[in-house]
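Internal ticket #5521
Category: modeling
Description: The requester needs a full-assembly model to guide mutagenesis choices. All entity lines are attached below as received. Residue total reported by intake: 1092.
Assigned to: D.W.
Attached entities:
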Amino acid sequence: MSPADFRRAAAAITAKINAECLHLCELDSAVGDGDHGTTIQRGTKAGLEKLQAAPPASLSEDLMSFSMGMLSSMGGASGPIYGSFFQGMAMAAKGHQAADAPLFLAMLKQGLAQIQKIGKAEPGDKTLIDSLLPAIQAYEAALAEGADFATCLQRMSAAAWQGVEHTKTLVSKRGRSRYAGERGLGHADAGATSMALMLECLANNAKGETSCAS
Amino acid sequence: MSPADFRRAAAAITAKINAECLHLCELDSAVGDGDHGTTIQRGTKAGLEKLQAAPPASLSEDLMSFSMGMLSSMGGASGPIYGSFFQGMAMAAKGHQAADAPLFLAMLKQGLAQIQKIGKAEPGDKTLIDSLLPAIQAYEAALAEGADFATCLQRMSAAAWQGVEHTKTLVSKRGRSRYAGERGLGHADAGATSMALMLECLANNAKGETSCAS
Amino acid sequence: MRKLINHPDDLAVELIDGFVLTNSKKVKRVARHVCARREAPIAGKVGIVIGGGAGHEPLFLEFIGRGMADVSVHGQIFAAPTPDAILTAIQAADAGQGVLLLYNNYAGDVLNFDMAQELARMQGIEVETVLINDEISAFPPERAEERRGTTADHLVIHIAGAAAESGASFAEVLRITRKAVFNSRSLGVSTAPCTLPETGLSTFDLPAGRMEFGMGLHGEAGIRQCALLSADATAEQLLAAIVADLPFRAGDEVIALVNGYGATTRMEMFLVMRRIHSWLTEQGMSIHASELGEFCTAQEMGGVSVTLMRLDDELKKFYDATADSPGYRSLP
Amino acid sequence: MRKLINHPDDLAVELIDGFVLTNSKKVKRVARHVCARREAPIAGKVGIVIGGGAGHEPLFLEFIGRGMADVSVHGQIFAAPTPDAILTAIQAADAGQGVLLLYNNYAGDVLNFDMAQELARMQGIEVETVLINDEISAFPPERAEERRGTTADHLVIHIAGAAAESGASFAEVLRITRKAVFNSRSLGVSTAPCTLPETGLSTFDLPAGRMEFGMGLHGEAGIRQCALLSADATAEQLLAAIVADLPFRAGDEVIALVNGYGATTRMEMFLVMRRIHSWLTEQGMSIHASELGEFCTAQEMGGVSVTLMRLDDELKKFYDATADSPGYRSLP
Ligand SMILES: Nc1ncnc2c1ncn2[C@@H]1O[C@H](COP(=O)(O)OP(=O)(O)O)[C@@H](O)[C@H]1O
Ligand SMILES: Nc1ncnc2c1ncn2[C@@H]1O[C@H](COP(=O)(O)OP(=O)(O)O)[C@@H](O)[C@H]1O
Ligand SMILES: [Mg+2]
Ligand SMILES: [Mg+2]
Ligand SMILES: [Mg+2]
Ligand SMILES: [Mg+2]
């Protein structure tokens, strides 16, 4: 994944989230306060603008711009969470011109670590971690089997969506939605869904360039 | 009509209005503020209580008690209007032990006069005058034809209801309902309806005693 | 029904009970339907009595206090108070300097207040009436005396109250109050209907996504329905009609008021006020003060009304004085 | 949709525009999402920053002024403000005496405010946080630190503001504010749902004639639904839960607050307050002051919340001081 790839991915993410905005709000309405769609829409738009306003830069710097754009525009619980996610990826990408399959795994892992550092959520708490963690695990397994970058990414996004499905069976312990308790059962988590959308867009826009990576 | 007759009529009026309360509110909703039912219900209840609390008295005094009970409990436009109506009847009944057919006509006429004195409404303004006036005219015509008290009263209440029908064709010029203007067309006036109910109850409870009148 | 009430017959009296308990430090109960500021009647001061039907809280009930009215007489829901209650209110306000009856111009109110005024005069109390008629939609300017009173109420009451507080004579208070009324104009839009608490009936229908101009405070039909406009467009249309009516002119100094009818969010009111400021500035008018909140409600009706009051130095002086009533507070 | 807005994306900023224009004599704009009382930062005074998501007006935006907070940072609708905006707010409040961050305990707010607090400390500003967590329904007393903040907000802010205004040290202001929070308990009922202005979606369903206890300010599910109760029964059930929680005891002196969530009429609030007074008196408690109005709303949600704050002489002294903010005014 080159800086150009990420910029393309960021544009795809922004378009995708924009299209899914109302759906994400409905998911958040079921158990939370119904604003996840508008919040993440605002964040991706701002992140992309910051990215496109910035001069050509390294992958790490681009990830950091996107992170700051989200952090300074979203608010809510998901602002710091997503800000930390891309910040973690940026930290892991530091010093690399582009990301190959192994580096991308390290980036995902550090993104997750940053989310947990600030949000303190555990797997099973019914948060975006429940689509991100299985996605990372699927990616890692594929890589271990010797799959190429493209395949790893496809397994990643497939697993993310399975994670989203799984959140329907979970009782929330974090964020506003925890107040719903049992009532949240049967509803997918809004953040887990937006995370799956992001991973899907990253997968579709990173895989083209695997050859020229590292 | 003896004092006892009027007390019976007042009880009948109160019961009737209580039963029609919601209907009168709906009529007032169509063009006014929807409270005529509750207002007139409050007024007749208070009037009857005042009447029953008072020692046996003359017809005029009883009419006055009923009037004061309404005036001090209703408020709104209809409070002073109905208060004046029964006050006018009381003034005409002064000095008479009971009312015979001719005296009852005079009472109705003075009731109407008091209403117009304070309310300044004209026939056709879409107010309770538009059921009261035709009722009085029908009563007077019957009396002129030599009909007995009972018949006069029946013609009176029949004409009152025709007047109510007629108000559907009128555009209001008085009270809150005037703001509806043309929109009021097709809706009967709430006050005209409550007036018809009252006249009907007066008719049904006065006619028994005509023999012992004057 | 979605309302928290007890027995419907007790609504008006129980809400007044709650009002007096809530404000017992500054307010007292005079009769079932009559409340007064603790100090009333105030020696040497013109007395001011306000009142009308209940269901529009804080209007009129809560506009008693320093720089406001002395006594409020509060009727049943949407029904003007009765003559005997109004007479009691007049007596409670009377300190021998004259008593001003200040209320909205509705048939029911006029009928009942006039009866009480007559009774009070028979008792030798000096009483005069000033009717508030700021709402412009129901009648053209040449029939202004038939117009209804609506959301200019607390502004007029405050100016009258501040004038009385200053020790002005009865004649002066009457003159200043009439001037405040004359310079006030209001128009509103409704976006959601309201229900009568006793019956649960809504007083009118209004589908979502529609709005009605000039709807009355009791659901009386307005002058025009249309698709829901933006906050900016709503402000522009209300102002255009209001400004043309007086008319307000470039150079005029005004108070700009946005009143919420009940279910309206302050967010919406702030958006409307935002456009009012830019619009009036474009027209060359200056805004001495802005007021925003729920002063005159119609149960849970949705929508806003806009009121402009043109000021001169005298009106400004009294408006700027302190107001301290449960329903309206203003500090210099 | 039944709301008067312009472009959904501009809602939060435009409502703040309107707020500043409406209150320009006493309030200034510091940044897109940051407002302050004109005099801030005030030399020699502890600074107080409040904030949270928009859509609950007057909370928090409008609680800045004398005897209240210095700066408010107002996020997007139902979304906590961002770290950079909060940092700007802290800088605008800082007069070198320490800055108190006072806000409601929600995950999103804590995440953003904590980030800003860290950044401010790196700049050498002395910053401490006090979380408001008065709402009792979501967690049992032993998990009080997880509870949400709701309608005790303006009472706590006023006591903190009055303490700071009195010249108290940072440590003192923190101690007094924590005491005010510790002694506050709230619980509410919802009678009608609210809609998000950007989407027109309602955040929950609630059929007419039903009510839900413990519903959150953003439509978060509550603890119990039942048929609509009378105003008296509603007050009794809310008080029983609130009083048992602290617990409040006979002989305690309290502030009693009835807050309307949005579409609620003052009539309903007065009926609830009426029963609160008789109930607390029956329990042998004394009511130092009563407050009634819309202080913390959830758009046009219907229903009320009740808050009790137990007072001691110190809290009483600061509560009784003057408050003059656009969202809350109180005169001795
Ligand atoms: N502590 C946390 N760790 C990870 N994700 C979280 C945490 N808290 C909330 N989230 C995610 O954020 C989503 C809600 O985001 P959003 O609705 O934008 O914020 P808010 O809850 O403040 O309204 C949830 O669906 C959940 O996936
Ligand atoms: N000036 C008037 N003269 C005669 N009847 C009137 C007058 N004004 C109103 N009414 C009657 O009063 C009725 C409305 O009464 P009500 O609803 O109780 O009072 P309000 O209009 O104050 O709500 C109308 O239907 C009309 O018949
Ligand atoms: Mg949310
Ligand atoms: Mg009526
Ligand atoms: Mg009425
Ligand atoms: Mg939110």
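Resolution: model delivered.
Comment from assignee: The helical segments of chain C are 11-22, 83-93, 107-122, 153-165, 170-182, 231-245, 266-282, 313-319.
Ticket closed.
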